[in-house]
Amino acid sequence: MTEVVVAADARPEMGLGHLSRCTALAGALAALGAEVTAVALGAQQPLTLDGVGWAPAALPAADAVVFDVYGDDAAAHGVTAPVAVFDDGQALGKADLRVAPAASANGGARLAGLAYAVLRRDYWGLAPVAPPALPPVGPVRRVLVSVGGGPLDPAPLCVAARAGAPGAAIVLIRGRGANGPAPAGVEVVEDVPSLAAELARADLAVCAAGQTALEAAAAGTPAVVVALADNQRPNAAALAAAGAARVVEDAGAVADAVARLAADPAARAGLAAAGRHAVDGHGAFRVARAVLELAERGR
Q: 142-278, superfamily in CATH?
């Protein structure tokens, strides 16, 4: 049996983005028959996500290692096996396979583009949707707001969402490390195991340009997306280029973007269909197969 170590950045200040996509990849690898060890680098204690157990530990020997950590390098952990690295534009060390969902195919990464966006298992069974097949879209009654699982203050996006869609319910998804209280009148959802159900209920999402933006695209939920960290800018650019999200430069532009989309059902339908087309939910298995091929070549 092929043994694969998946090592993800689990420092509390990093939110859940790395753990989320690496949990999805670990699940896909296991489904394809690999024996997977999940190592949470920088975590303060063990945790479980989607049935995958993560523990802070040294990296054991394996046939291949998947590394998804900023400011660190697989070689520094004594890794001698072939290494696959998630590339979000950060400086890379040892990398036999680069996975760059937000990059273009001519950027040097073997697995480049939104087809390799690795999403959790709730998004694996989505049927393909072509952009011309626009879903019916009604009025905006419910707006989901999320800034991810890190220590960011969600209040500015909540206020902007309400200003743009004053008649809608504003629903804040509070991550594990969120800072600041929710504005009055905002519905707060905490400790939700997956955003899939909440995205399905929402008519519009306002979110950071991380994993949540990719999940919104896959779910067919039109989204206003803002890069709240430099490493999210490639993701935002890729979604904008695919017509899969309305990307704005900062929180100050969110209210206007929400208002314009709330008043334009056809534009929301176009974003929904383009999002489903660009991010089809099967990226975890595409990457998993490439990692298993890497392990086989290294034997």
A: Glycogen Phosphorylase B; (3.40.50.2000)
